[in-house]
Amino acid sequence: MNTPQLARLLRKTPIRILYKPLHRSVSTNSAINRGLRRSVAAERYYERQEDTSEYGYNPEPTNSQDSPPPFNPVIRRVSARREGEPEDDSFEPESGRELSPRLDHKSPQFGYTPAPRRYIPKVNYDAEWIYGTSVVEAALKCKRRKMYKLYVYAGDNRTPAVRERDRDMKYLARAADVEIINEEDVGKMDSMSNSRPHNVVFGYVLECMPIQRTPITALKDVQEDKNFFTLEMARHYFDGRPVTEHYFDKIRCRDPKRRYPFVLMLDEILDPGNMGAILRSAYFLGVDAVTITARNCARLSPVCLKTSAGAAELLPIFEHAKSERMITESTENGWTVYAAIPPPTKNQARRDRYVYASEVGEAVKEGPVMLLMGSEGEGLRPFLKKLSKFCVSLDKGPGADSLVDSLNVSVATALLCSKFLKV
User: Fold this and answer.
1) Tell me: the pLDDT tens digits for 139-153?
2) Rounded to whole angstroms, how far apart are CA atoms 214 and 233?
3) Is the terminal CB of the chain with fewer CB neighbours within 10 Å at N or C?
């Protein structure tokens, strides 16, 4: 075989096949682990043999090829020896010592015993712990959910101002028929809040049922005096449970003298922090209600409620199963739907019925408006943008670099709501 033929053969032959013996020789961990597994299997096998012999039971003879090898604690080294190691390539492990995956290292020794995770029983299995001063106070005042126990931190560092706040919180709890527990162990309250800040200065944790979102299918007509608007209720929740009662029957407009109702529709907001920030900004700016998709959306978890600072308890929140039906039927009932999109080009602006954010302030004076916001990463789904009547976005400031080409969804929602409501 000449040189060109040998070169072509080497190019066609995979490198992993040529160096396969080398890989076998340096795979120390895998070889040692195989030896350990075989030794443990053999030890268990002979223990079973001893247990059966006590009762005079002789197992069926097995094939010598299927039986495991005799137990031998001596493990052969497969890799090359290090400098200073003995020439013998085998060693016997110490008795009473558990072998670690790397036999040349000792098992870690702890000077303390890790404390197990605390188990705190609940009154109801489906209940949750909400934390934070504003969240707990709003839940006790609104009474939109069933509440069981209020845990108040009773440590030695309570100042007179904090103790006065404790009395006000306990007064709200008694008015709501909630059991009050003075808790001195801050670690227990940390376990209930999943090690998240519960305002240790005040230290309030409330055990209650999750907040219910009213299931709807569409928004109905608005009264002539602009004081109320009604809802088209759904018969079942998203998981199939029948709806027996509705917390909201009709929604009151927060500023009927100046404008029509303004509703915020959230489609697939995944981050609970963004969800809570949106609810907080919406309530602060004067949004009348919020509707959220039932699937692929962050739930109203304790993290979301803590971020909302109690706004989730005060703001009417709905859920809808089908966004397409929600937009179509609400449009037929007189609602104007605006879709929030990134800043488009000139051709896209003409095709997508684009309006500037500075021009939407008069929209709520002409009729009811619903603003549609999309997810954090992908934005609004294309078919929902086509169903909307107008598209609106925020323009970038002068001199902004192309590296930062968008805003956080909670910040964008707050800015757009302020443009519509002229706050």
Assistant:
1) 999 888 899 999 998
2) 8
3) N
Low-confidence ranges of the chain (pLDDT < 50): 15-26, 52-66, 71-80, 91, 99-103, 114-115
The residue type found at 11 is: R
Q: Which helix (H) or strand (E) holds 273?
A: helix 272-285
CA-CA distance, 180 to 182, in Å (whole number)? 7
Length of the chain: 423
Walk across the sheet containing 228-233 and list its strands.
Answer: 250-252, 228-233, 214-222, 317-320, 289-293, 262-266, 369-373, 336-340, 390-393, 354-356
- Check residue 317 and give its pLDDT: 92
This prediction's pTM: 0.69
Calpha distance 57→336 (Å, rounded): 84
State both tokens at 316.
């009417």
The DSSP letter of residue 236 is: B
- The structural domains of the chain, ordered by start, are 116-208 (3.30.1330.30), 214-396+406-421 (3.40.1280.10)
